[in-house]
Each structure stands twice: as structure tokens, then as C-alpha cells.
Amino acid sequence: MPNLQTHITKSLMKFAIIGNTYQAKKSSHAETLFQILKERQAEIHVCREFYRFITSELGINVYADNLFDGEDFSADMVISIGGDGTFLKTASRVGRKGIPILGINTGRLGFLADISPEEMEATFDEIYTDRYSIEERSVLQLICNDKHLQSSPYALNEIAVLKRDSSSMISIHTAINGAYLNTYQADGLVIATPTGSTAYSLSVGGPIIVPHSNTIAITPVAPHSLNVRPIVIRDDWELSLEVESRSHNFLVAVDGRSESCKETTRLTIRKADYSIKVVKRFNHVFFDTLRSKMMWGADGRN
Is residue 194 located within the same domain as residue 253? Predict the structure, then answer.
């Protein structure tokens, strides 16, 4: 009887689906996803924009129990179908709801959305038999007096301070817990979580950080001095940034969402008071994903 009760409970699982609405080929696997969930008698709630895209633009006939807008949803699990960019948008909408997110990768790289379309059937078999894990990922919070940035101040990957024009570098006066660290003369500065260490931070020379290391990486973008290197700090420390720029403004990008700021804007960055829960397959090993995505061991001479 306990096994029967588990089956009944799992058959009534409620999923919220958020997907990529820009490239048709990335959404073509959605039909398979809906079919898998329907076979398992799941309750299916879909982002209205994504539902219209796959039904109207792609002409795919799928069933949904309910449509939702923005952050107006609840579920046992949220499914992000797309690439890592779609996953970041999904994480922003989930926010502090505490709902686990499963990332199905129809993009290219996929560190966050790391379930391939071919793995969907097996993955949901594992979910319905409780053979999966949930990883807690830290989030950064940006605090400043700019109302545009305060509308969405949380980043799962990184917060980047960047020069706005193409002419001269900016000076970023940086302090940690009130103690002066350095003035970075560079094109910018990337402050990344361990999750974001394999994203923008990596592309500008930052270190790869294991997801649960409770750290923050500070990496300059094209620094004026070759002596300036990335530094990794504890994630319960607070950063303060003041920027000088010849154009008297600069850009702040929170997980890629950028806003222009005045030179007088003072930025504070710290760990948010909530985390994002990421669903992983029961046999998931971070280093396997790392080797695969980074193509370590591949012969580049071919």
C-alpha cells in the first residue's frame, strides 16, 4: 500500500513550464515534453507567452490545465525548456518561491539546463520514483538607489559593472566589508556566483568554481594592469563599488539585464537571503558536466 500511495501522489504532480520563445527549433521538443507529462497525468501550467508561441507560431497542439503570466504561478516543479538564458529568466520569475527548477537544454552549452531532449523520458521516470537530487544555488543581490535596477536586483550568475562607451576604461573603487581592496582600471568588473563562474566570468578569465563552495569571484574585464588578477572571496562578505567614468555613466548588468547608471550611483553587492533550487539527475556529477561542456580531453588538432 505505501508504494500505491507514492504512485498516486506523484501522478498528481503539478508542473509550471517556461520556454524559449525566440527560436522555433529550440521549442520543437516541447511537444514531446507535454506528451510525457500527459502520460503521467501531471497537472500542466504553462507560461502564456510560451503557450501562444508553440501553438500559434509552431502550430503544435498541446494541452495545458492553466496559463499564467509573469510570476503568478505555483507548482511542485518548474520546467525551463531552452538554453541557460531561458533558465536564468525562469530563475528570476521563480525568485524566492522555493520551487525546484528542471532545465531541459535545447540550446548550445547548457550548464544550468543540462537535461538533453533525449534524456527527458528517463529523467521524468526518475522524478516520479524520487530518484533525483536538488542543488541549492546562491544568488547575488544588488543594492543601490537606482529605481530601474531595483526592479530586478537578483542574479543567479553574475552582476557586471561595465563601461558604457567604446572609448576609455572606467575606474571601479572596490571595498570588501568596508575595507579598501583595489581600484580596478578596466573595461569592467564581473562579480559571479559559483553558478556564474562558467558563464561571463569564465570568458574574461575568471576561475571555475565548484557550485557549493560558498564563494564569490571578482574578475576584471580587460584590466589596464597585467598584475590585476581575479580574486575569490567568501559569499557572506559584502562588496561596495564606486565608479568613475569620463562619460559620467556606466552600465550595470544583472544576469545580462543591463541598465545605464550615473557616476554618482554607489553599488552594494551581497548574497541574497534566498537560493535557487536546481533539479539534477540522481547520477549527476558536476565534473562530468564540466569535462563534457569544456571539451576537456578533446584533440583540437582534428
Answer: yes
Q: Tell me the residue range of the domain where 194 lies.
A: 140-273
With a threshold of 0.85, does the pTM exceed it?
yes
Annotated active-site residue in 65, 69, 72, 84: 84
Residue 200 known to bind ligand: yes
CATH of the domain at 152: 2.60.200.30
Consult the annotation and say whether 160 binds a ligand: no
- Residue 50 one-letter amino acid: F
* Rg of the chain over all Cα atoms, to the nearest angstrom: 21
Q: Is 157 annotated as a binding residue?
A: yes
Q: Let me know if 146 is a catalytic residue.
A: no
Give residue-wise pLDDT tens across range 52-80.
999 988 888 899 999 999 999 999 999 99
Tally of structural domains, the chain: 2
In a domain, 299, yes or no: no
Helix then strand then coil, % of the chain, to nearest 5: 25, 35, 35
